[in-house]
Amino acid sequence: MAKKLMKGCEAIGEAAIRAGCKLFFGYPITPQNEIPEYLAHRLPQVGGTFVQAESEVAASNMIYGAAGTGERVFTSSSSPGISLMQEAVSYMAGSELPVVIVNIMRAGPGLGGILPSQADYLQATKGGGHGDYSAIVLAPWSVQEAADLMGDAFDLADYYRNPVLVLGDGLIGQMMEPVEFPERRVPIKPLEPKTWASNGWQGARPRAVINSLYLDADTLEKHNQDLQAKYATMRRDEVRWKGYGLDQDCDVLVIAYGTVARVCLTAAEEMRESGVKVGILRPITLYPFPYAAIREAAAKAKSVLVVELSAGQMLQDVQIAMAGARPIHFHGRTGGNLVTPEDAAVKMRDVAEGRSVEVQHV
Amino acid sequence: MSSANGAAAVEAPAREGTQVFRYPEALLDVTTHYCPGCTHGVIHRMVSEVLDELGVRQRTVGVSPVGCAVLAYNYFATDMQEASHGRAPAVATGIKRARPDLVVFTYQGDGDLASIGMSEILHCANRGEKVTVVFVNNAIYGMTGGQMAPTTMPGQITTTTPLGRDVSLAGEPIRMAELISTLHTPGFVARGAVHRPLESVRTKDLLRRAFTYQVEGRCFSLVEILSTCPTNWGLPPGEACEWLEKNMVPYYPLGVFKTPEAGDRAPRPL
Question: Which one of A209, A214, A216, A219 would you mutate to disrupt binding with B, by most B Cβ within 10 Å of its Cβ?
């Protein structure tokens, strides 16, 4: 199929449809309104259903109900709306429901602002809602990758019977880039029929009960152990990252994800021309996080630099990965301000030439 | 074969007949957790009988709430989903929109539906979702131990209104059936009770009508059912039924508040 110029939000909506998702429930919030708007006109064309919910609380519970029937379903929102959905995300993890949730992150805390941010990293990767659970978190760096990861997200959700979050900053949602959709998608995982779905009990299978309530402590602990085993499998099999310039020793190893990684790549190329060797490792899955890959890449680097649109959230995971093996430096912008290639280049040079103060271990 | 006194048993003559009473297929034959004297069991049975009579059990998905009926998924012989507190109408919306061929019902109490879930029930009704809501109003939070509900009567003593509900601070009890019936969207909204056999018979008819509207793809339907909570009201079951009739029925009148038939929609100003 020919490439088409699309806004990130629209590409996300189209990719979902092409992954067989015909159901969307959502509530307006900037900067992701183009996702529900696109689907409101597009889903009826393909026999799908669009529902504008009365709140993010309702939207997240609607996808709970829809996913419980075994159909593919997704919702999208932005940071404050995602906070409202956290209870349902915990229920969906506890009930093992496959759903996809897109968060086009805006700056916080509170109502914050509508400009791009990556400050929901900890909420997304460390649970967000109550209880011991994890969701796979995918972080695209381009419109094309956002479209590709949407398809993967549905396959991963179905395979693991678990919520999958697609975490994009405001730039991913709002920028336009050429995007190409495959003529025919092949699932990235072997997918079984959803015999667990609650879609009418005919008697051929056990009665389907979508539920996360276990009043007996031992039963609930066993349920938790099963969930933890599943998360361990995700951590073993689903780690994704990409490296740039990691084949040789470098002065600075930059860890960045999403659009920030693209900005850093531009800066790194300039640095190399001026003699400072910079490698970049870009996590694509934020959960599971590429701890081992970072440790390995850092072995060939003098210092590590984390760059984020936050006050230092992924930084904590990099600190865990490094366990003090290398000095770690940090550059973050908040409030909706971006990291420019010039900022990133200055910081890389400062780190390489000893003018940057390393982050103290917590 | 011989009888207890050793005499030869006389074979009873075979009689033609129809079985008129049986355990509902839509109700699992299990022991429930409900308190002695609680009327949830009556309502469970009536819902199950209606599902049987309409022949829809095998394509029904029920949604249980948070509250006394939280474990309803263990009692109905249908596929079930357990919703978070108050969100059953949103969950039901998701199920019905995903699979319009399914019959979907929620079973909710007054705290779940009229307090934390007020937004979800009103918008579900207002979208005209083709689902059926069974709303059990017993004027108190049962599962958590007898706290004030939005439907608690003025002066009624609960664990959080130890001196009785003070309407100057807590407001008047909310009449959900009346409130929902003000929505312009067509729907079936009614209120019944289960404190006397006659009322139970009438309420079952309301439930049958409510599910029928859904099965026919007509409209949203809700039946509010006045129910007793002997444990948290601190009354024996019989007295609880009398208390319901004396205190609740005058404030929560029984009847049909809204039907989707022509003429029931108030004129809308342009």
Answer: A209
Rounded distance between C-alpha atoms, residue A227 and residue A212, angstroms: 12
Residue B104 has pLDDT above 80, yes or no: yes
The burial of A187, by beta-carbon neighbours within 10 Å (0-12 exposed, 13-18 middle, 19 or more buried), is given as middle
- Give me the residues of A, 15-34, that contact B with CB < 8 A: 23, 25
Architecture of the A242-352 domain? 3-Layer(aba) Sandwich (3.40)
Tell me, yes or no, if A53 comes closer than 8 A to chain B by beta carbon: yes
The structural domains of chain B, ordered by start, are 40-258 (3.40.50.970)
Hey, what are B134's tokens? 């069974």
- pLDDT given at position A220: 98
Tokens (6 digits) for A183: 């003529």
Are residues A213 and B70, on separate chains, in Cβ contact within 8 Å? yes
What residue ranges of chain A are covered by domains with CATH 3.40.50.920? 242-352
Whole-model pTM?
Answer: 0.95
Superfamily of domain A4-198+225-237: Thiamin diphosphate (ThDP)-binding fold, Pyr/PP domains (3.40.50.970)
Angstroms from A9 CA to nearest CA on chain B = 23
Token pair of A308, please?
């984020």
Count the neighbouring beta carbons within 10 Å of the beta carbon of residue B89: 35
Residue B150's Cβ-side half-sphere holds a number of Cα atoms within 13 Å equal to: 14
Q: Give mean pLDDT, residues A234-259.
A: 97
Supply the pLDDT for residue B140: 98
The 10s digit of each residue's pLDDT in A292-313 is 999 999 999 999 999 999 999 9
How confident is the model over A314-358, as pLDDT tens digits?
999 999 999 999 999 999 999 999 999 999 999 999 999 999 999
B69 touches chain A (CB under 8 A): no
Q: Which of A65, A87, A201 lies nearest to residue B94, judging by beta carbons?
A: A65
If you count residue pairs, one on A and one on B, with CB atoms under 8 Å apart, how many are there? Answer: 130
Q: How many residues does chain B have?
A: 270
Instruction: Give mean pLDDT, residues A269-279.
Output: 92
| pLDDT at position B264 | 54
Q: What is the location of CATH 3.40.50.970 in chain A?
A: 4-198+225-237
